[in-house]
C-alpha cells in the first residue's frame, strides 16, 4: 500500500465567516502571507504527495487562480527587480500537480469525496480538509501515511476536544488508548453526538487516509445528520479503521476566533524578527 494522491474538499460556503466569504472562498482566507489552502497543499507535499485533487464549488475560481501561473504579475515583478517576490509567485505555481473538479450540489463532505473517485481510482488517498491548518513537528498527513502503509488500512487523525464541543464533531469510540502506541484500532464513530451520547472526546480533525473501498460505502450510505451525505457514516462501514492522536496545533479557519489564534501563533513562529517583535508588542499592549 502506497499513498501517492491527496484530495482536498473546498466547496463549502463558509457561512461562519460572512460577509467576507460572500465573494471570497473561506479556503482563501489569509493566515499571515498565505491563504489557508496553501498551508494544506504544502502539508500534503511534505508527506511526499504531489498529485492533488481539489474539489471546488460555485464561486471558488480564486483557488484555481492562486495556484496558476500569473504571467503579467511575474513580468512586472521582474521588471521592478523584485526577484524574491517573483520567486515566491513562481514557486506557488510549481508546488504540485493540482487538478480540480466541481461539486455541483453541496450535499456534504461524503458527497464531495465521491467526486474524487474518477481521479483516485483504485488507490488509497489522503483527504485533507481545505479550511483546517495543522502544525506539528512531523506533518499530520505524514504520520497518517506512515500508519496506513504499515497496517494497510484507513487511518484518521483524532484530537481530544472539550466535552462541551463534542456535538460539533465526528467522535471516535475506542478502547483505552495506549500512549506508547502511535496508532490504535477504532471501534466505531458517531457523527455530532450529544455530550451524553458521545463515546469519547476524541474527534475527527480533518485529516484522513482512506482506502478506495470508501467509495462503495459512500454509494450505499443514505443522507444523515443535516440531510447531508456524511463521510463518518461511510467510514463506520469499513472493516478496519485506525486512529492517530493529534500531536500539534490545529486551527479551524472556518471560524473567527481560531483564525485569529492562527495568525497570532504562527506569526510568533514566523522567520521574520520584525514580525515577531510586532506581535509580541501587540500582545504586551493587550495584556495591559
Strand content: 15-25%
Instruction: Report mean pLDDT, rounded to a whole number.
Output: 89
Strand order within the widest sheet? 5-4-1-6-12-8-13-10
- The count of β-strands is 14
- Poorly predicted runs of 5 or more residues: none
Shape: globular
**How large is the count of helical segments?**
11
Secondary structure category: alpha/beta
How do the helices and strands follow one another from N- to C-terminus? EEEHEHHHEHHEEHEEEEEHHEEHH
Describe the protein in words.
- With 288 residues, this protein is an alpha/beta fold.
- Helices cover 35% and strands 22% of the residues.
- Strand 2 and strand 3 form a beta hairpin.
- The protein starts with a strand and ends with a helix.
Amino acid at each position: 500500500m502506497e499513498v501517492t494522491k491527496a484530495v482536498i474538499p473546498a466547496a463549502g460556503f463558509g457561512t461562519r465567516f460572512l460577509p467576507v466569504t460572500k465573494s471570497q472562498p473561506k479556503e482563501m482566507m489569509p493566515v499571515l502571507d498565505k491563504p489557508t489552502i496553501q498551508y494544506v497543499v504544502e502539508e500534503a507535499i511534505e508527506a511526499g504527495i504531489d498529485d492533488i485533487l481539489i474539489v471546488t464549488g460555485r464561486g471558488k475560481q480564486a483557488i484555481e487562480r492562486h495556484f496558476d501561473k500569473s504571467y503579467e504579475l511575474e513580468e512586472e515583478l521582474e521588471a521592478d527587480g523584485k526577484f524574491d517576490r517573483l520567486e515566491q509567485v513562481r514557486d506557488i505555481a510549481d508546488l504540485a500537480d493540482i487538478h480540480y473538479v466541481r461539486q455541483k450540489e453541496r450535499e456534504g463532505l461524503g458527497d464531495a469525496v465521491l467526486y474524487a473517485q474518477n481521479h483516485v481510482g483504485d488507490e488509497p488517498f489522503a483527504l485533507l480538509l481545505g479550511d483546517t491548518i495543522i502544525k506539528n513537528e512531523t506533518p499530520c498527513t505524514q504520520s497518517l501515511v506512515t500508519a496506513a502503509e504499515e497496517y494497510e488500512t484507513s487511518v484518521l487523525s483524532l484530537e481530544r476536544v472539550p466535552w462541551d464541543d463534542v456535538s460539533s464533531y465526528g467522535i471516535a469510540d475506542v478502547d483505552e488508548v495506549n500512549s506508547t502506541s502511535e496508532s490504535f484500532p477504532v471501534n466505531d464513530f458517531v457523527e455530532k453526538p450529544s455530550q451524553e451520547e458521545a463515546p469519547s472526546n476524541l474527534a475527527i480533525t480533518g485529516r484522513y487516509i482512506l482506502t478506495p473501498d470508501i467509495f462503495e460505502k459512500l454509494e450505499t450510505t443514505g443522507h444523515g445528520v443535516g440531510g447531508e451525505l456524511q463521510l463518518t457514516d461511510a467510514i463506520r462501514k469499513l472493516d478496519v479503521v485506525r486512529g492517530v492522536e493529534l500531536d500539534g496545533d490545529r486551527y479551524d479557519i472556518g471560524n473567527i476566533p481560531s483564525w485569529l489564534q492562527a495568525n497570532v501563533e504562527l506569526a510568533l513562529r514566523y522567520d521574520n524578527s520584525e514580525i515577531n517583535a510586532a506581535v509580541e508588542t501587540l500582545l504586551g499592549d493587550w495584556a495591559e
